[in-house]
Amino acid sequence: MTDTAALRHPEKRNRPDNPSPRKPAWIRVKAPTSRNYTEIKQLMRQKRLHTVCEEAACPNIGECWARKHATFMILGDTCTRACAFCNVKTGKPGAVDTLEPENLAIAVASMGLSHVVITSVDRDDLPDGGAGQFVNCIARVRELSPGTTIEVLTPDFRDKDGALGAVIAAGPDVFNHNLETAPRLYPTIRPGARYFHSLRLLDEAKRLAPEGFTKSGIMVGLGEERTEVLQVMDDLRSADVDFLTIGQYLQPTPKHAPVDRFVTPEEFEEYRRLALGKGFLLVASSPLTRSSYHADRDFVQLREARRQRRGAA
Hints:
Blueprint: H1 3-8, H2 35-46, E1 50-51, H3 52-55, H4 61-66, E2 71-74, E3 78-79, E4 89-90, H5 100-111, E5 115-120, H6 131-144, E6 149-153, H7 163-169, E7 174-176, H8 186-189, H9 195-208, E8 213-220, H10 226-238, E9 243-248, H11 265-277, E10 282-285, H12 295-312
């Protein structure tokens, strides 16, 4: 099978005659061994909290937890959707934990976080898609850690009227929603979502809070073409998104979508330069980049980039 055919027929890329490519040296990471890693893991279990770092099998967990940076995943560990790239389990979620906002806020204070990222599983079973739990978590973190900046990475809240407005009204410093991939690949990679709905969500978030920062991320190595990546960039800029992250897709298990190819560090750097040229305030683009990777440092750079741009205007 040619490379072009593999791009057109992603379901065939996992056949024995077209095995997934071997993982290159630049994508390899060390196993977590730090003391902070162990302490954070114990804290999460004590407070009955989940992290996307663990549930999504993030390759950066050792580095991030060594720095005492974690991304909290609220609303349980079971998602109502089954995306082909995601390691979070799918099924019927349990009841919403009313103590979760309090426990999360205590953990944030205990870790002394200057910046916290709060994400969630998809909860299509809830009338508000889980928006109320985001609001409660934001409010409680503000109360216990008033100096901590807050970034939310939300689901698309599809068909949940008022959900986005409620989250934006809670005043997160960064609103993030990932497009994940090019629209052509949505039917196989993100079948429960709709590309242009996600794009409209980001556009509406900026309209509701013009001074807030918006952010989105995509994975590469799923079979997308270069022109498609550039089109996604243009679409995000049309929604006035401030911050773009681009990272390498890694196949969590043999049941998930296979890796089409490993994008080189040089290509990631080219994407970064092109995206900045299109007007993003900040772009993080590397093989190990993930939506929340170095989010605390990036937020400082994001504010500075806006200050400089406005100063130059």
